[in-house]
Design brief:
about 15% strand, Heat Shock Protein 90, about 55% helix, five-stranded parallel beta sheet, alpha/beta, five-stranded mixed beta sheet, 4 domains
């Protein structure tokens, strides 16, 4: 470890040198590119001067010399009648003193064989013929063993050119006599017959820029050395800072792991006794109710149950916030009914609203899709937080839960859930800090209504993860309106829509009556639980439903009893496996059972409600997962489901 730390500065130093050299190379390439661009611009400027001179000479011959010759036919000179001949003659004289300045007209079908285009010039002519919009070609070329910069422009046949190049019959007799009748004729107006090539020397420029390059590189190397020395000093400082930052990161990671461990342990330690508290409170409440106990006794039990549920909700909120902040909250996108979600939330909140004497209304305004794709559990949780807060902070008046759909011009749609109340309301200052963790309106609100202030921040984070947003409008003393906008994408042309009538389809047909009892007669359950209170509770719930319950105190006893029951031919239909037990915990016991070939259903029982706990149990071989506190109905439904599957497997021909 220490050797690695000693090698680390050397490694960073070498990498720093490498990147500095890479930077110098890139900068050198940039300088060379800029030099080349400047070089070509200067060379092009020189060529442009020659081109303008050539144009001026041609204009002089056309406008002055030719009319003069035509006026004195007795002094006719063939070359004087053609501006091209005159220009070439001028440049021939010019080249005697400046041989590298070049002017040439190269054509495909010349009268003068000396003007015939070479192979490269023929390619240029073809390019001009294929690209009528191409006005110029430029580049470097070797001429007489030396480098020049050239510009080539197309020679386009004009009507006046046809006097000499149309046919031998129309050409001057002197021209026909000089070049014959076999070439240089048959041109058409608009045809690209050749290229006008102008070139200028560049050797002096190359020498000039070479000397400039040495100066630039010298300056650049000096700057590089200075930067390198400064970089070494900066690197040493950064290395020291990096060590401090690494230590701070490690401490932060340790703190985060400690927080996660603390939350997991706290959840387990609180949920475990809550299982017994809530379970036996419910059992006692049902028993006293059946015995017509006094209202006072039932009221006391309800207080125990309500406060136990409040403590459980507090634990769930803290765990949810922890998962959201750690970015470990995963969404499960499923097809679901927004009307069903709305009805479920209304059913959960309506009882509390009725107890407080509030008017409660739920409605779908207009038409909404019958089904959408989202995470129904998280949408339900979000709306339940908003609606629960509305009932909590409203002493008189009403609470409304509304749903409508909005469509944008581009076809995108969104569901708009609104929760309105006539409660205490909030001022502007409170609204600014409303979505901060552990924040409520003021200290008096906490004393009066209780709570931790986590519900709204969790709702906002859930809305963001679902791709939506939450808005709030509020007036002190008049109430608040929370709006949750959930994007649902572009609707298909024939998407089924429903209105308020869909809410009636999802009403609870039992109207608050207890659920139909689940019977477990003949079901054999092996319960692995080391806590005597929870052991008694779960056993009582199962036996009241008709199940036969066999107890195990730890994982080793589970393995022994499963082997014994298999030998007797009476294997358990379901194993309820607590995950934290002495000697051998539930995860290890489940793995060993699966390794030994046991295929019966195993349902995990744990007070750890984190996502990774569920994954750990399922990976070990559990078929299902139940969290503590145990809910009577959920427990019985789960056992009945897996017992039915186990019985079906036992009765199948393959098993016999």
């Amino acid at each position: 470890m220490n050797a690695a730390r000693r090698q680390s500065p050397c490694r960073f130093y070498l990498w720093g040198c490498f990147f500095l050299l890479l930077l110098l190379s890139a900068a050198g390439a940039l300088v060379q590119y800029l030099e080349r661009k400047a070089f070509e611009q200067e060379a092009y400027h020189r060529v442009k001067v020659l081109t303008q001179m050539g144009k001026a000479i041609r204009a002089y011959c056309k406008n002055t010399l030719r009319p003069a010759v035509q006026a004195h036919t007795d002094q006719f000179i063939l070359e004087a009648m053609s501006s091209t001949y005159v220009t070439q003659g001028v440049f021939r004289e010019f080249n005697r003193t400046m041989p590298l300045y070049h002017y040439r007209q190269a054509v495909l079908n010349p009268l003068n064989p000396a003007n015939r285009a070479d192979e490269e010039e023929q390619k240029w002519i073809e390019m001009f013929q294929k690209n009528p919009d191409l006005e110029m070609l430029s580049g470097h070329r070797e001429l007489q063993g030396r480098q020049v910069f050239f510009v080539a422009r197309p020679i386009i046949v004009e009507r006046r050119c046809l006097r000499c190049h149309g046919s031998p019959q129309t050409a001057p007799a002197e021209l026909v006599a000089r070049y014959g009748t076999q070439s240089g004729y048959g041109w058409q107006p608009g045809q690209v017959a050749g290229v006008l090539l102008v070139a200028a020397p560049t050797e002096d420029l190359m020498a000039q820029y070479a000397s400039m390059r040495y100066v630039v590189w010298g300056v650049f190397v000096a700057v590089g050395v200075v930067l390198f020395c400064g970089g070494v000093v900066a690197y040493r400082r950064l290395l020291a800072i990096n060590v401090l930052l690494e230590r701070a990161r490690q401490k932060a990671d340790q703190a985060n792991r400690a927080k996660s461990t603390f939350l997991a342990n706290m959840s387990h330690e609180i949920r475990t006794p809550l299982t017994a508290i809530l379970g036996f409170a419910e059992e006692l409440w049902l028993k006293l109710k059946a015995q017509n106990a006094s209202p006072e006794q039932l009221h006391y039990l309800q207080i125990i149950r309500r406060n136990g549920q409040h403590l459980l909700a507090l634990i769930n909120d803290i765990l949810d916030l922890s998962k959201i902040e750690a970015e470990k909250l995963e969404l499960e996108i499923l097809p679901c009914s927004p009307a069903q979600i709305l009805a479920d939330v209304a059913s959960a909140v309506a009882v509390r609203a009725k107890q407080k004497g509030l008017k409660f209304r739920v409605d779908i305004q207009g038409r909404v899709p019958r089904t959408i794709s989202t995470d129904p559990t998280r949408v339900h949780q979000l709306l339940l937080n908003l609606a629960g807060n509305a009932v909590k902070f409203t002493e008189k008046g009403s609470v409304e839960l509304l749903l409508r759909m909005e469509q944008k011009p581009d076809g995108q749609a969104a569901l708009v859930f609104q929760v309105r109340d006539t409660g205490i309301g909030m001022d502007a200052q409170t609204l600014k800090k409303l979505f901060h963790p552990f924040v409520q309106a003021d200290a008096s609100t906490t004393r009066r209504f209780g709570g931790t202030g986590l519900g709204l921040v969790i709702s906002q984070r859930l809305a963001q993860q679902l791709g939506g947003e939450i808005h709030v409008e509020s007036t002190p003393g008049q109430g608040s309106c929370f709006t949750f906008v959930l994007p649902i994408g572009k609707l298909e042309p024939h998407t089924p829509l429903v209105g308020s009538e869909a809410l009636r389809q999802h009403d609870d047909p039992n109207d608050g009556s207890p659920p139909r009892p689940i019977q477990l007669q003949g079901v054999r359950v092996l319960l692995a639980e080391d806590g005597p209170d929870n052991q008694l509770l779960i056993r009582t719930l199962l036996e009241k439903a008709g199940a036969q319950v066999l107890l195990a105190q730890d994982g080793e006893e589970v393995l022994q009893k499963v082997e014994h029951l298999l030998q007797q031919g009476t294997p358990p239909h379901v194993i309820l496996m607590d995950m934290q037990m002495p000697k051998l915990d539930g995860v290890q016991a489940t793995r060993l059972l699966r390794q030994q070939g046991y295929q019966g259903p195993i349902v995990a029982l744990t007070a750890n409600a984190m996502h990774q706990d569920r994954e750990r149990c399922l990976q070990a071989g559990c078929n299902d997962f139940l969290t503590k506190p145990i809910q009577r109905q959920k427990l019985l439904q789960t056992v009945a489901h897996w017992a039915a599957q186990a019985q079906e497997k036992l009765n199948s021909p393959a098993s016999t």
